[in-house]
Fold:
Amino acid sequence: TGTIKVKARFNNQDDALFPNQFVNARMLVDTEQNAVVIPTAALQMGNEGHFVWVLNSENKVSKHLVTPGIQDSQKVVIRAGISAGDRVVTDGIDRLTEGAKVEVVEAQSATTPEEKATSREYAKKGARS
Structure:
C-alpha cells in the first residue's frame, strides 16, 4: 500500500498534533536537476504512446510524443519530447486536432501565494525544477 511507519518530532506549539495521529506525508528522496515539468492534465496517452499538445507562436497546436518520468497528482517530469519554456495545452484536449488554432486563457486566480506561484509556473509552460 505504500504505507510505512515512521517516528518524527515536530514543533507543536498550537497543539494541532496529537500522539499516534494518522497523517499523510511526503518525503523528498532526491531532486532531479533541470527537469522539464508540466501539469499532469497536459499528459495524454494515445496509440503512439504518451503525448502533449504544444502551442507555437501563432497559438496553433502540434502533437509531441514525450517520455514521462516521475509524477504526482499535479505535475509530471518529461524526460524527452519537449523543452523548458514550451507551452502545453491543459484543457479542452479532447477536441484538438493537429494544427488547430486555440485561444490561450490565463490560469484562474489562485488564493494563496504558493498556489499563485504554482499556477504561473506550471499552467502554460514546462518549468524547470
